[in-house]
Design goal:
This protein is mainly β. The chain is 10% helix and 48% strand. It has a single domain, classed as Methylamine Dehydrogenase, Chain H, CATH 2.130.10.10. The N and C termini lie far apart (48 Å).
């Protein structure tokens, strides 16, 4: 009997060892799998959309639509609430103060735990993109007209200053060390901002390699910028220290957002032609288009779920006639033509599609 028990213990121990040993191999195999749309959800509503934003610390997803900012659980994609009276293009959150902000006029500031509005902040220009800068704990609200950037203290909502970026800004990225990089769409360059002085210190010209930059990814560790452009449809890879062009790679048509995942060493660009381009950084001097993922038409903005290494995209589509006839409006009519000549989503009832791309 004792022999049988000893043999059973040995077998269990061996099984545990095998399970532990197989863990890394399982993860490696998973990393080799291609990206694909692994989850989708739809929600009826009214109004246009633009940017999507993942608050990775609080596990919430923000999608401005119509006259409100919709709030979802980042893990389940179930709606968790909404910020009313916020006709916005995008949203950003300070994880320390738990304050959220919308790129709207006026800017709406809210408590991210209760979703209660704290105050509204009058700003100039036409708010479009928005970013939280972690070193100074400030919110940057970008506008295609001057002032190109309005800087807000995320702790109390006061305006710190404004910046003339020398052109129309699109996406921005912070290195967390004092430098902010901003796509200047109409000037085909990247502006570099000192976040302490709020001064532009450089403009990195794309030198005809790419035009109409819209998406941006930043590898902070290796000081690499991935600039996603419209014409030609190219990712221009730059040295973030001096602006030197390192490489160019093809992307899809209609980019409007991008990013970089340091966990996987991959840059990505979402496009209105229904594709998501994944670019692998093999080394600071070697890059390749790893995959082109089929998504949905007009799914041109995206955000990164850093916990799950997943990319979340959004788009809208016409609602079925039956649903449109029975669903009441969920917000104001924000029918509009976006800055690139395409619709940001119709003003009438329609479906909001949320897509999760992962392995």
């Amino acid at each position: 009997m004792k022999t049988k028990i000893a043999s059973l213990k040995s077998l269990l121990a061996l099984s545990g060892f095998i399970a532990l040993a197989s863990g890394p191999f399982t993860q490696t195999a998973r990393a080799d799998q291609p990206y694909k749309v692994i989850k989708t959800t739809q929600l009826m509503g009214v109004g246009a959309i633009d940017y999507v934003y993942a608050d990775n610390d609080s596990r919430r997803l923000y999608i401005p639509r119509g006259s409100e900012v919709l709030v979802f659980d980042l893990d389940t994609l179930k709606q968790a609430g909404a910020i009313p009276n916020a006709k916005a293009r995008g949203a950003a959150v300070d994880p320390k103060s738990h304050h959220g902000f919308s790129s709207s006029s006026p800017v709406v500031m809210w408590d991210t735990r209760s979703l209660a509005t704290i105050k509204t902040i009058e700003v100039q220009g036409r708010p479009d993109g928005i970013l939280f800068e972690p070193l100074t704990e400030r919110i940057y609200v970008f506008s295609h007209s001057q002032p190109n950037a309005t800087v807000i203290d995320a702790k109390n909502g006061s305006i710190v200053g404004t910046i003339d970026l020398g052109g129309a800004p699109e996406q921005a990225a912070s290195d967390g060390q004092g430098n902010l990089y901003v796509d200047i769409e109409d000037k085909d360059n990247v502006a570099v901002v000192d976040v302490k002085t709020l001064k532009v210190t450089a403009h990195y010209a794309l030198e005809g390699k790419g035009g109409g930059p819209a998406g941006l990814g930043l590898d902070v560790k290796n000081n690499i910028l991935f600039v996603m452009c419209h014409n030609p449809q190219t990712c221009v890879v730059l040295n973030a220290k001096d602006g030197k062009i390192i490489a160019t790679l093809p992307i899809g048509k209609g980019t409007d957002n991008g990013g970089f995942n340091p966990n996987t060493m991959e840059a990505f660009s979402s496009q209105s032609d229904g594709t998501l381009t994944i670019i692998k950084e093999n080394s600071p001097s070697s890059f390749e288009v790893e995959q082109t993922v089929e998504t949905k038409t007009r799914a041109k903005t995206c955000t990164l779920d850093t916990r799950n290494n997943q990319i979340i995209l959004i788009t809208t589509e016409p609602a079925p006639e039956a649903a449109a006839a029975t669903t009441p409006p969920a917000g104001g009519d924000q029918s509009a033509t976006d800055k690139k000549g395409g619709r940001r989503g119709g003003g009438g009832p329609g479906l909001l599609d949320i897509l999760v791309v992962g392995r």
